[in-house]
Amino acid sequence: MPTTARVAIVTGGARGIGAAIARRLSHDGHAVAVLDLDATAAQPLVDEISGTGGKALAVGADVTDEAAVAAAVAQVTADLGAPTVVVNNAGILRDNLLFKMTLDDWDQVMSVHLRGAFLATRAVQGHMVEAGFGRIVNLSSTSALGNRGQSNYSAAKAGLQGFTRTLAIELGRYGVTANAVAPGFIETDMTRATAARMGLDFEELSRTVVAGIPVARAGRPEDVAAAVGYLASEEAGFVSGQVLYVAGGPTA
Description:
Elements: E1 7-11, H1 16-27, E2 31-36, H2 39-51, E3 56-60, H3 66-79, E4 85-88, H4 103-131, E5 134-139, H5 151-171, E6 176-183, H6 189-197, H7 202-210, H8 221-231, E7 243-246
Parallel strand pairs: 1-2, 1-4, 2-3, 4-5, 5-6, 6-7
């Protein structure tokens, strides 16, 4: 539990891993702004958090839109207080082999993951510096190490790791840490949709993947949320510029 309540923003927070992170941060005592493309998508989670005694706000914004991100952070500041924790979780998939991948597939993935993380982080870093405290957690992936059919996603997730390390160097002197969490195979609606798009049975796919995971199970959103919760805490003040793989075993 943090010794001081903070205001946190979770992008792409309405469902899946983002929702689990928002729940975890609320459980840890933070007020949470659940930011998603449509505020109505985030409202059920906000109602859930509020119903358990937490403080939360649903915010609609396209993370690739500079003005929308600035307005969202201003709304959070006005309604909850100055944010000093940001979790850049918003992401999309546009998987395909390189020769089939369109320029739009490439640009959209780069824009949501990299431009989105840049805009959200830039918009909150002033509040962090002013407070002398900040926690930036970027969602990378084991795909950053390379994955067939994901040249765009892999490049974006690897880019987030470089972005993270640079933020750690630039902002550390102001009490701000920056880290990345890189999940492996996590059972979410997105992974199910990906399997369907590939024409694969999800349960069969899961069994195949799990056979190669040392802990012998698939990951859950809560596994990722636990890692984020630690990195967002005051206790993690001497951990910065790191990539924590949440993958059930060692990574290459």
